[in-house]
Amino acid sequence: MKEQYPFSSITAIDNSSMVDRVEMSLLNFFINQKLNVGDSIPKELELTSMLGVSRTVIRESLNRLRTMGLIETKKKKGTVIKSPDISALLQKSLIPHILDKSTLKNIFELRLVLEVGMADFIVHRATDEDIKELYEIVKDEMSPQSDKIFDIDYEVKFHGKLYEITGNDTLKDFQNLLLPVYSYIYASGLLNLPATDKHFTSHKELVEILSTRDADKFRAGMRNHLENHFFRIL
Q1: Number of Cβ atoms within 10 Å of the Cβ of 166
Q2: Residue 172 confidence (pLDDT)
Q3: DSSP category for residue 3
Q4: Nearest 5 degrees, angle CA 220-CA 223-CA 229?
Q5: CA R_g for the chain
Q6: Cβ atoms within 10 A of the Cβ of 124, count?
Q7: Are residues 79 and 93 in the same domain?
Q8: Which residue of 65, 167, 172, 182 pairs with 70 in a disulfide if CB–CB is 3.0 to 4.6 A?
Q9: Are residues 141 and 206 in the same domain?
Q10: CATH number of the CATH domain containing 103
Q11: Whether 50 contacts 42, CB under 8 Å
Q12: Which structural domain range is residue 136 located in?
């Protein structure tokens, strides 16, 4: 009988393309050399010699990094390290209609985690004028009901103001980036829920808590408010 060999004795085949491997080598080179924004990287011919691959492969790898926003070409300096625009990178792939339900659900959960986490920033950075504006937004709010789907325009207006209050440009850009995803999720039927008598903190109650400047209470109120959303998807 022929001897059976354990699978552990077989070395896995690297099926990544040459461009994939060169791309990773370049990223590791940037990291190991501790290159910063604005630092020049070697020219194409130098990289060809360093890595022992064709100039075509180097060019394709650099084009990928350029598309990712990690490098750019500048006059008199050549190709340099660039700080990538995270929002721009995500925008290219966050197309709601081509995301599966699992990904949409994960993105919606990410939004909920962010909004609980930014509660402290909101309390410490909200001005009296901000709170006045929030009161104006919620003045006609009805008590939230768990068996009703939210008004998306109202949700965006209120929570958009909270993102603005944080003063964090990346958070604000991120919210704008995800708005089409939120709208699609609200309209997709992913948030269906049977009726319940559970009470959730309303937007108006959140503003009242915020006006007390108590970070712990506001964080707890935000978590309870968002339970209405969590309850629909968990």
Answers
A1: 20
A2: 85
A3: P
A4: 160
A5: 25
A6: 12
A7: no
A8: 65
A9: yes
A10: 1.20.120.530
A11: yes
A12: 89-233
4: in domain: no
The identity of residue 159, as a single letter, is H
Identify which of 122, 94, 120, 98 has the alpha carbon closest to the alpha carbon of residue 108. Answer: 94
| pTM to 2 decimal places | 0.63
Task: Encode the chain (234 residues) as per-residue pLDDT tens digits.
Answer: 445 545 454 444 454 588 889 999 999 999 999 999 999 999 999 999 999 999 999 999 999 999 888 899 988 889 999 988 776 666 666 677 777 778 777 877 888 888 888 999 999 999 999 999 999 998 887 655 544 545 667 878 898 999 999 999 888 887 877 777 777 777 766 666 554 567 788 899 999 999 999 999 999 999 888 877 766 665
**Same domain, yes or no: 80 and 122:** no
Buried b (16+ CB within 10 A) or exposed e, 61-97: bbebbeebebbeeeeeeebbbbeeeebeeeeeebebe
Residue of 94, 46, 91, 47 whose CA lies nearest to 69: 91
Q: Which two structure tokens, joined as six digits, stand for 7? A: 């699978």
Is the same domain home to 118 and 220?
yes
Of the chain, the end-to-end C-alpha distance in Å amounts to: 54
Q: Are 92 and 106 in contact (CB under 8 A)?
A: no
> Looking at residue 35, which CATH number applies to its domain?
1.10.10.10
Taking the C-alpha atoms of residue 133 and residue 101, their distance in angstroms, rounded to an integer, is 35
